[in-house]
C-alpha cells in the first residue's frame, strides 16, 4: 500500500516538490495530493488506536426530515475523553466519527462479517445544559451526515456506538484555500523568479518619516537592543508602502526577544491604526501574544490617566475562534468576540440601551422636582384607593432623588464603561471618548453630593434642581451641586447628539453587530486556520498579516491567511531551527516541504 502511494505521489508531483514554480497554479496544485495523503494517514492512525478513542453509546438516532443521510444523534455520556495528555475531548463541528454496532478494540473488529459500521461527520452541536458545564461535559446532542444510510433496529441487541477519530475542519479549510485564487499578491511576490531582489519601493522613502519614539511618545524602545529596534523599524517601513508587496522576517532562537519585539511592534501598529491580522498555529500561542499586548495597553492607560474608574480602551483589538478550543480567560476576555457581542448587546438594545440610559438621566436632572410631585400624587391616589385613613410615610425629596439617581446611574455607567472598553477609538471618536471620561467623573461628583454630604437637606436639594444652568457664568461656584448638575446636563446632551451620528448597529441583528466588530477593530487575532472565517465577511481591508510561530505553521495552511482580501504585506516571526508542524504520513515524510 505504501509503495503504491509513493508511486502515485511521484506521478502527481513529478518527484520531489520543486523549489521553484512556473505559476501560482502549479504552486498551489503541488499541495493537493500531499494534503489528501496526510488526511488519509491521520484517519488511518486514528483507526489503529481506536481502542482508546473517545466513545459514547447512542440513545437516540433519528433521520432528519428532508435532509438525506443527515441524522440527529443523542448519546448517554462520553468515555475515554482524556488520553495521551491531550485536552478532554469535546464534540465539535467537523469531527469525523465512526458509527458502529459495537465498541471496536482494533480495526479487525470492524472487518468481521457480522458487524456494520459507517463514517460520519458532525455538522453541528445542539446547545444544551452541557454548554453551561464547561470542560466537565461534552455535548450529548448533535447532528451528523453519514456516507450511507444507517438502519437502527429495536431491542438490546441493536446497540450503536459513536467513536471520535479526527477533526477535519482545518484540512477542509486548506483544501478550499488551495482553489480560492483570491488575493495572490504576497504569493506571487514570493514565487516570482524575475524579482530582482529590491527590498524597497522606488516611490517610498528609505527611512521612516519621523522617529517612532517621538511620534508615539513611546518609552518601550528603551528596553530593546539595536537589532530589535531595527526589526521593528524595517517592518513599519514596509507596511507604509502601497505600491508593492513584501515579506519581512523576524527570526531568532529562543531567548533573543522575538516575543517582546513583536509585542512592541503590534503596539506601535495599534497606535498607527494599521489594520493588521495576527495569526499563530495554536490557540495557546495566539492567546499569549494577545495577553502581552493587552498588558502593554493597560500600562499605557494607567500612565496616561490617573483615574481608577477609567476602563481600559480595548475596542481596537479583537480575538475570535472556536470558543471550546480558544478557552477565553480573564486575561483576554475583554477582546474576545463573544464577550464583546454580549457586552455591546446590553448597550445597543433600543428599549434599555445607551439611548434609554442617557434620556432617563437627562429627564432626572431636568425634571426631578416634577417627577417627585408625580410620585407624591401617585402615593396619595394609592392611599385613597386602598382606603387607608392613616397617613403613610412617604419618601422625602432627598430620599427620592437618591433612589432615582442610584437606579439610573448604574446602567448609564455600565453602558459608558462598555463603550470606552469595546468601541474602537477611531469609531467612538476622541471627543466622545473625552466626554464619556468627563461624564463618569461628574456622575461620581453627583453621587457624593447626594449620598455623602450630611448637610444636604431636601429643601436645599430641591432649590438646586430648580435653578437654571449657569455653566458660563463667572460667579458660579464650580464645586457646587448646581454647577455639577449643569455640566452633567451639557455633557449628556452633546454626547447624545454625537453618539447618534455614529450609526451604531442595532442589537436585534446579531450579524450586523458581529460585522461591526470585525469592521472596526484594527488588530484582529486568530489561529491561521480560523482566519478562514474572514473570507466570508465583507470587512475593511487588512494591510498587514503577521504570523507568529511561523516555523510551526504548515505552509499550505498559511495560504488561508495569505489570501485574505487586500493583504499586501506579511511579517513572519519564529525560529528557523524549531521543529516544524507534525506530518503523519510516512509516504510524504521526505517531501516535508510539501506541507511545512
TrEMBL record:
SUPFAM superfamilies, alphabetized: P-loop containing nucleoside triphosphate hydrolases (SSF52540)
The species this protein was found in: Sesamum radiatum
InterPro entries registered for this protein in UniProt: DNA2/NAM7-like (IPR045055), DNA2/NAM7_AAA_11 (IPR041677), DUF6469 (IPR045529), P-loop_NTPase (IPR027417)
GO MF term set: helicase activity
Residue stretches making up the DUF6469 domain: 54-184
Protein name per its UniProtKB record: Regulator of nonsense transcripts 1
Coiled-coil regions, chain positions: none
Record-annotated DNA2/NAM7 helicase helicase domain positions: 223-586
Amino acid at each position: 500500500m505504501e509503495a503504491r502511494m509513493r508511486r502515485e505521489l511521484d506521478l502527481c508531483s513529478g518527484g520531489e516538490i520543486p523549489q521553484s514554480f512556473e505559476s501560482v497554479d502549479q504552486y498551489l496544485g503541488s499541495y493537493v495530493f500531499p494534503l489528501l495523503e496526510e488526511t488519509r494517514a491521520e484517519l488511518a492512525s486514528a483507526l489503529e488506536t481506536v481502542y482508546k478513542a473517545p466513545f459514547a453509546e447512542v440513545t437516540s438516532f433519528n433521520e432528519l426530515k428532508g435532509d438525506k443521510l443527515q441524522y440527529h444523534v443523542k448519546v448517554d455520556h462520553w468515555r475515554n475523553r482524556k488520553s495521551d495528555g491531550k485536552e478532554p475531548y469535546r464534540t465539535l463541528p467537523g469531527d469525523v466519527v465512526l458509527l458502529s454496532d459495537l465498541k471496536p478494540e482494533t480495526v479487525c473488529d470492524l472487518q468481521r462479517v457480522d458487524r456494520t459500521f459507517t463514517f460520519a461527520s458532525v455538522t453541528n452541536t445542539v446547545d444544551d445544559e452541557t454548554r453551561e458545564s464547561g470542560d466537565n461535559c461534552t455535548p450529548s446532542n448533535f447532528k451528523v451526515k453519514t456516507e450511507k444510510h444507517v438502519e437502527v433496529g429495536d431491542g438490546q441487541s441493536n446497540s450503536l456506538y459513536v467513536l471520535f477519530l479526527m477533526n477535519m475542519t482545518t484540512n477542509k479549510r486548506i483544501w478550499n484555500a488551495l482553489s480560492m485564487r483570491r488575493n495572490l499578491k504576497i504569493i506571487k511576490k514570493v514565487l516570482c523568479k524575475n524579482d530582482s531582489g529590491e527590498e524597497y519601493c522606488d516611490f517610498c522613502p528609505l527611512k521612516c518619516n519621523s522617529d517612532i519614539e517621538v511620534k508615539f511618545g513611546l518609552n518601550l524602545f528603551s528596553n530593546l537592543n539595536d537589532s530589535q529596534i531595527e526589526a521593528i523599524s524595517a517592518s513599519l517601513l514596509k507596511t507604509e508602502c502601497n505600491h508593492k508587496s513584501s515579506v519581512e522576517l523576524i527570526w531568532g532562537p529562543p531567548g533573543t526577544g522575538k516575543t517582546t519585539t513583536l509585542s512592541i511592534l503590534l503596539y506601535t501598529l495599534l497606535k498607527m491604526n494599521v489594520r493588521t491580522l495576527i495569526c499563530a498555529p495554536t490557540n495557546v500561542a495566539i492567546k499569549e501574544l494577545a495577553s502581552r499586548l493587552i498588558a502593554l495597553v493597560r500600562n499605557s492607560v494607567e500612565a496616561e490617566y490617573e483615574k481608577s474608574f477609567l476602563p481600559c480602551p480595548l475596542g481596537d483589538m479583537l480575538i475570535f475562534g472556536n470558543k471550546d478550543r480558544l478557552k477565553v480567560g480573564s486575561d483576554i476576555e475583554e477582546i474576545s468576540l463573544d464577550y464583546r457581542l454580549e457586552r455591546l448587546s446590553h448597550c445597543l438594545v433600543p428599549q434599555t440601551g445607551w439611548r434609554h440610559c442617557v434620556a432617563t438621566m437627562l429627564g432626572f436632572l431636568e425634571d426631578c422636582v416634577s417627577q417627585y410631585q408625580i410620585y407624591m400624587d401617585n402615593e396619595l391616589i394609592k392611599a385613597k384607593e386602598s382606603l387607608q385613613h392613616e397617613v403613610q410615610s412617604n419618601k422625602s425629596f432627598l430620599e427620592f432623588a437618591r433612589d432615582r439617581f442610584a437606579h439610573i446611574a448604574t446602567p448609564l455607567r455600565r453602558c459608558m464603561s462598555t463603550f470606552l472598553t469595546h468601541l474602537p477609538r477611531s469609531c467612538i471618536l476622541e471627543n466622545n471618548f473625552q466626554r464619556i471620561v468627563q461624564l463618569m467623573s461628574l456622575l461620581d461628583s453627583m453621587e457624593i453630593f447626594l449620598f455623602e454630604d450630611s448637610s444636604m437637606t431636601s429643601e436645599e436639594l430641591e432649590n438646586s434642581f430648580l435653578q437654571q444652568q449657569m455653566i458660563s457664568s463667572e460667579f458660579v461656584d464650580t464645586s457646587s451641586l448646581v454647577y455639577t448638575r449643569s455640566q452633567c446636563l451639557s455633557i449628556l446632551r452633546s454626547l447624545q447628539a454625537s453618539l447618534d451620528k455614529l450609526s451604531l448597529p442595532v442589537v436585534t441583528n446579531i450579524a450586523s453587530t458581529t460585522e461591526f466588530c470585525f469592521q472596526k477593530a484594527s488588530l484582529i487575532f486568530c489561529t491561521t486556520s480560523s482566519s478562514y472565517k474572514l473570507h466570508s465577511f465583507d470587512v475593511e481591508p487588512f494591510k498587514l498579516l503577521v504570523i507568529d510561530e511561523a516555523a510551526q505553521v504548515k505552509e499550505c495552511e498559511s495560504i488561508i491567511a495569505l489570501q485574505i482580501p487586500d493583504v499586501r504585506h506579511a511579517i513572519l516571526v519564529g525560529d528557523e531551527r524549531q521543529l516544524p508542524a507534525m506530518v503523519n504520513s510516512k509516504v510524504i515524510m521526505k517531501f516535508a516541504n510539501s506541507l511545512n
